[in-house]
Amino acid sequence: MDSTLQNHFLIAMPSLADAFFHRSVIYICEHDENGAMGLIINRPTKVMLKELLGHLRISNEAKTLEDTPVRFGGPVQKGQGMVIHDQLESNWKSSLPLSNDIVLTTSTDILEVIGTDQGPRNAFVTLGYAGWTAGQLEEELMENSWLTVPASHELLFSTPAEQQWVEAAKILGVNIHLIANASENKQ
């Protein structure tokens, strides 16, 4: 494969009607000749992080966890938790640097300190992920299901989830709502 979309966002086109991916923004964690894996970043669930930690019997008293929703990362392995964060110099058991300022951690040891001074400065937890087999994502791109843009630390960690779809398209200079109107008029 000549190019990779790792550390890019996929922005769902307005015409993408799939229940899981409608108006989604996906952070691509891996992309190679074997397929791709990413996390939907703009789908907060009703489960708060404090509640999830209680269910896992992880003690963490950070106040911010009470108001921090776990995000729906995608329809594959919905029980698999993953943490996207920005602390590279970590000692977590299972971390994978995705860029020079973004890390994916899948071990639960990070959950003991998330939201505290010992944890990463910026982080969020997802359950599940989105996956594509070899060539599947490329086919969806050719079908104009997605826009792509290099990932932005600010969009990932500082933009509210409900604004990420519109703001991700703005990185490309696109008003996503105008695309929606154009595609609806062609029908």
Secondary-structure blueprint:
Blueprint: E1 8-12, E2 25-32, E3 35-40, E4 44-48, H1 49-55, E5 69-72, E6 76-85, E7 95-97, E8 103-105, E9 123-133, H2 136-142, E10 146-150, H3 153-157, H4 164-171, H5 176-185
Parallel strand pairs: 5-9
Antiparallel strand pairs: 1-2, 1-10, 2-3, 3-9, 4-5, 6-8, 6-9, 7-8
Number of domains: 1
N- and C-termini, Cα separation: 35 Å
Strand content: 25-35%
Going by CATH, the architecture would be 3-Layer(aba) Sandwich
Instruction: Quickly give the structural class.
Output: alpha+beta
Shape: globular
Number of helices: 5
Total number of strands:
10
H/E element string? EEEEHEEEEEHEHHH
Would you kindly provide a written description of the structure presented here, covering whatever features stand out?
- The protein is of the alpha+beta class and 187 residues long.
- It is built from five helices and ten strands; from the N terminus they run ββββαβββββαβααα.
- A hairpin with a 2-residue loop joins strand 2 and strand 3 (35-40).
- The radius of gyration is 17 Å and the shape is globular.
